[in-house]
Amino acid sequence: MPAITVPDLTVLDRLRTPGLGDQPRPVWQVTTAPQGYEGEGFPVRRAFAGIDLAHLDPFVMMDQMGEVEYAPGEPKGTPWHPHRGFETVTYIIDGVFDHQDSHGGGGTITNGDTQWMTAGSGLLHIEAPPEWLVQQGGLFHGIQLWVNLPRDAKMNDPRYQDLRSGEVALLTSPDAGALVRVIAGSVDGHDGPGSTYTPMTLVHATLEPGARLELPWEVDFNALVYVLNGHGTVGDGSPVHTGQAAVLGAGDYLTVTADGSQESRSPKLDVIVAGGRPIREPLAWAGPFVMNTKAEVLQAYEDFQRGHFGHIPA
After folding, report:
1. Which residues are noted in the entry as Fe cation-binding (predicted)?
2. What is the span of the domain harbouring residue 267?
3. Scanning 1, 81, 82, 180, which has the fewest C-beta atoms within 10 Å of its C-beta?
């Protein structure tokens, strides 16, 4: 897995161990992601399908894209499409993805890089593998997380952040059995590079077989753990495996433990941990628009049809 790694985890800062008064977060729910296709036909798992939106808040959804090994001519992306009212966070673990939008944002990400697009008042964008990758094929694996915007930020100007893998904060567990990558937010006083409107934290953690991760977590944030690959337990011992998500209750820290033996294809346990301060506002979500009311969604469709979201660059 080419997402940023460290040959010797013992050189990293260690996470603190929970204190005597710290409470572990219990597991409320475990769900299994259905599989389907998105965009021009690339495979996805709908990571948070089946979870009540009230438990996801401030998130809307997350897709695991791949993991797939494309043959030459097979790599796919999305056509140009609009967004308004939220942010898309695209984190590439393996492979290469290009982004371009009608507000001037754009770039190429690979192997642990992240594109953070704030759609805000509205834009058009496209995500696709570069032409050379389409021709030769290759591995593709990543996630896309949709982060809601509060009412007072939904019509802000669009913004684009290009976060390189070398910028993420890297931590390890007290026994150096887990690598914790902080992409956004803060874990135990260590900040990730992503700038967010909604207070939140996004982490990619890799656990060695048998390792246990006790991750400090903001008490006023919700917490979701999604398994990218491997198998283990979450919280008080609830078993999880590839393609499953766990919703956690309140507490000071969350626990993830890797089983002692893993599959040869996925020798370690990889999880995405996401959480944020709930916005607790009405949600009206239809296709590419995430607003507060049905009338605002209809207005977004009308503005898009009138060309108010900009134009596809030449």
Report:
1. 81, 83, 125, 127
2. 9-277+297-302
3. 81
* Overall number of domains in the chain: 1
Residue 1 lies in a domain: no
CATH number of the CATH domain containing 242? 2.60.120.10
On whether 204 is known to bind a ligand per the annotation, the reply is no
Residue 130 near residue 100 (C-beta atoms within 8 A): no
62-114 confidence digits (pLDDT tens) = 999 988 888 888 877 888 999 999 999 999 999 898 989 998 888 999 999 99
Classify burial at 76, counting beta carbons within 10 Å of its beta carbon; exposed 0-12, middle 13-18, buried 19 or more. Answer: middle
Residue 2 lies in a domain: no
| pLDDT tier for residue 225 given thresholds of 50, 70 and 90 | very high
Task: Tell whether 40 is covered by a domain.
Answer: yes
Q: Is 125 annotated as a binding residue?
A: yes
> Out of 137-141, 185-189, 228-232, 234-238, which region has the weakest mean confidence (pLDDT)?
137-141
81 is annotated as contributing to ligand binding: yes
Residue 256 tokens, joined: 């993830």
Helix/strand/coil (H, E, C) string of 215-268? Answer: EECCCCCCEEEEEEECEEEECCCEEEECCEEEEECCCCEEEEEECCCCCCCCCC
